[in-house]
User: Fold this.
Amino acid sequence: MTPARSRERIAAASRTHPYKELVEKAGLSIVIDDIEGRFVYFNRSFAEIFGYTPAEMKGRSLCDIVHPDDADKVRRQHGERMEGRAGSTRYEFKGWTKTRQDVYLEVFAYPIREKGRIVGTQSYLWDVTARRKTELELERTLETLRTMTGGIINVVHRLVDLRDPYTGIHQRRTADLARAIAREMGLPADMVDGIRMAGLIHDIGKIAVPAEILSKPARLTAIEYDLMKTHAATGARILDSIDFPWPIARIVRQHHERLDGSGYPDGLSGDSILLEARILGVADVVEAMITDRPYRAALDIDEAIAEIEGRSGTLYDPNVVEACLRLFQAKGFRFNLSLPYTGTDALAL
Assistant:
C-alpha cells in the first residue's frame, strides 16, 4: 500500500470513529502523522496549542511546529520509530506557534502498523510550557545566586590575600587540588563546587592570628601553635552568618580534624567529619608540604605523597588518599607554583 493510500485510510478511520466527538473536545492533544511526518489527523486541542485553526493546520507537518533548536531530536525520534528501531517513546521538545512563540510539549508517541508495516505515528501531547518556563526561571535565579556567591568568596579570599599573600596563594592551590580530588572520586558537580569554594577561604580565620606568628621564620612555640590552631574555629564563626548553598562554615571548621580524633578544634573522628572537610584536609597537607614555608624550604612531592599514604586510614580518609595518589602518580597533576592569584578564580568553576 502506498503512503498516500495509508494516509487516506487513517484519516477516514479518524473521521468515522465512534468516539470522534470525545477526542475532539478532549483537553489532551492527539495527532497522527505519516511516515514522512505529515499530519494525517489531529484534534482541535493539538491545533490550538500552536495557534492554528483546524483548517490552517491541515497539510502541515512536524517541521512546521517543531522549534529549530529541537528539530534534530524530533526528527531522530520519528525516524527511529519509522525504521522499527524504537517502540513507544516519551520525551519533551520545544515547539513553535504560528506567531513563532516558544511552547514546550511532553509527548508520548508510538508507531502505527498496517499488515505488519509501520505507516505512521500516533502521539499524545501535553502542554508543559508553564512548568518549563518556571524551571528556566529557577535555573536563571540559581545561576545569579551562584555568581553572587562566587563574588562573596572572591572578596573574602582577597582580604586574606592582602594581609598575607602566602596564605592567599596557599588557599587557591589547596582549592584546586581539593576540587581535582573530588572530581577524581566522582562526586556530584555541585558538591565539587562547594569543596573548591570552601578551599578558597579555608584559612580566613588566620586574619585573627598576629602577623608575626604567620610569618615567623622559625618553628612556633607551643603557645604560638595553640594560637595558630584557633584559625579553624575563628574562620567558621566568620562565615557562619553567610547563607551559602554549601556547608562552607562547617567544612572550614573541620578541615584540620583527623580520622583518629587527633585533629582540632573539636576532636572529631571518622564519619563525623564531613567528606568535604576530609578532602580539603588532604589537599591542605599536600600543598603545605611542597611549598616554601617561612621556617623551611619546600619538600619534594614524593615526601608529601609518602606522608598521606603512610597515614591513610589513621589521619586521612583512605578513599581521599587513593584519589590524590592517582592524580599525582597516574594523571600527572601538578600545582602551578608560579601563577599568582588573579581575583577571579572563585567564579572559574
Summary: Residues 4 and 283 are 68 Å apart (CA to CA). Residues 141-347 form a domain with the Hypothetical protein af1432 fold (CATH 1.10.3210.10).
